[in-house]
Amino acid sequence: MKFLLDLLFRVLQLFAEPYFLLFLAVVIIALLKRKNKRKNLRIGIGVLVVLMIIFIGNGFLGKLISGYLQKSYVNTSEMKNAAGQNPVIVVLGGGVVDINNTEKLHTMSFSRIVTAYQLYHEFKKNNIPCKIIISGKGKGHTSEAELFSENFKKMGVSDFDIIKEDKSMNTYQNAKFSSPIVKKMAPTSVYLVTSGFHMKRSVALFQTFGLKPIPQASDFINTEITIFPNSYNAAFTFVMLKEILGIWQVQIYNNLGMNG
């Protein structure tokens, strides 16, 4: 059952890829033309593709999805007052890029570093012990957790306060592998730091593994309503569409008892 659902969602993920959608439309039109049938259907598909490009490229769809994914996490700074005596900050990796055989953190990672450090600094300033758990292996030779750790140390975070979870390859594993570490520490509060568009799915997965994290969104994305479609709007819209599919997958698996 889980294998079939995994396969289904992998297929659905393809429909959040612009090149796949364009390829699919071209193939369908070509097949219909080859059989010299259904001219109206070919025209309809062509019109549908054009409308989809406009609808996605002009930012309207992205604007709607952006609000759904992120609006709950815009004003979360006041939650820091609920720290208690031993808060834990869980930071999710944001990817690694390889430039000239040198591995560097993805640009999105640095907003997460800054947000986590601001929390950490505020707690330490008030003499509240605090730990940072960095979750992420990534696909490079050096783990995301290690690269995050190097940056935190340069900012003045004590090595004693840094815990590296360097096995996870995706958000599901972030939650699965980080949760036992957090539970052993028995913190009064757990802060989850990741990007705004990624937060809803991340919170749902951490809740699946028995935690109730306080969301601290580090960055936000949005589209701009434009007269003419542009690649900026399209790129962010497709990123958020994939996130929607991920949220549905978590919800369905939870309802069927297949997560965990």
| Bulk shape | elongated
The helix/strand order is HHHHEEEHEHEHEHEH
- Strand residue content: 5-15%
CATH T-level fold name of the largest domain: Rossmann fold
Q: How far is it from the N-terminal to the C-terminal residue, by CA?
A: 15 Å
What is the CATH class name of the largest domain? Alpha Beta
Topology (SSEs and partners):
Layout: H1 2-14, H2 18-34, H3 39-57, H4 60-70, E1 88-92, E2 96-99, E3 102-105, H5 107-125, E4 131-135, H6 144-154, E5 162-165, H7 171-185, E6 190-194, H8 196-208, E7 214-217, H9 231-255
Parallel strand pairs: 1-4, 1-6, 4-5, 6-7
Antiparallel strand pairs: 2-3
Helix pairs in contact: 1-9, 2-3, 4-9, 7-8, 8-9
Written description of the protein model:
The protein is of the alpha/beta class. It folds into 2 domains: 2-69 and 222-255, no CATH class; 79-217, HUPs (Rossmann fold, 3-Layer(aba) Sandwich). Helices cover 55% and strands 12% of the residues. The chain contains 9 helices and 7 strands; from the N terminus they run ααααβββαβαβαβαβα. The strands form 2 sheets. It has a 5-stranded parallel β-sheet, sandwiched between helices. Strands 2-3 form a two-stranded antiparallel sheet. Helix 8 links the parallel strand 6 and strand 7. It is elongated, with a radius of gyration of 21 Å. The mean pLDDT is 88.
Defining traits:
single chain, 260 residues, alpha/beta, Rossmann fold, five-stranded parallel sheet, two-stranded antiparallel sheet, 9 helices, 7 strands, 55% helix, 12% strand, transmembrane helix, membrane, Rossmann-like_a/b/a_fold, Cell_Envelope_Assoc
